[in-house]
Amino acid sequence: MATPHILALCGSARTGGFNKKLLDLAVAEARAQGAEVDAVDPKVLTQLPIYDQDVEAKGWPPLVKELRERLARANGLLIASPEYNSSIPGGLKNLIDWVSRPPERLFTEKWAAVMGATPGVFGTARMQPHLRQVLASTGAHVLPTQVHLPRATEAFNADGSFKDEARRKEVAALVSSLVSKLKG
User: Fold this and answer.
1) Which own/partner pairs from 38-44 qualify as long-range (CB within 8 Å, at least 24 positions apart)?
2) Tens digits of per-residue pLDDT, 173-182?
3) 101-118: per-residue pLDDT in tens?
């Protein structure tokens, strides 16, 4: 049985953001379950050029090439993202647009787990269907379960852990589902 290799993406570039905290906890859980995890620095979202086919025609920008190589090595994705205007943050969508370009179909047959945290009451429930649709169009399989973390301002201890054990178990269950799929 091969070791699962997961690429972890955060949809928010904000230092200390709720989704980065959520992703960090999920990454630690995936590693505890035996997966190798390649966590992309969220600041990458601010460093990518806006997708432009004219730029692509001149050759992949170095950062795009690196991200495509990292995605090619992974057999699964772990994504934590906020929702902006009830949808996918532009930086995350832009990253997906760049790394999903042909000739390779790098998302095809990869499993993805989706999570999101927000200070509001919806816990990214409006964004996640959009992200599912985009990932499905790239050929990825999105787990049917997900994590919605509302009221994120109240969810974390000072050390970044969850205040509520039920939330920790919810994230652990999602990660366990992903790791199980990747182990086959």
Assistant:
1) 38/5, 38/6, 38/7, 38/8, 38/70, 38/73, 38/74, 39/8, 40/7, 40/8, 40/9, 40/10, 40/67, 40/70, 42/10, 42/12, 42/13, 42/14, 42/17, 43/13, 44/13, 44/95
2) 999 999 999 9
3) 999 999 999 999 999 999
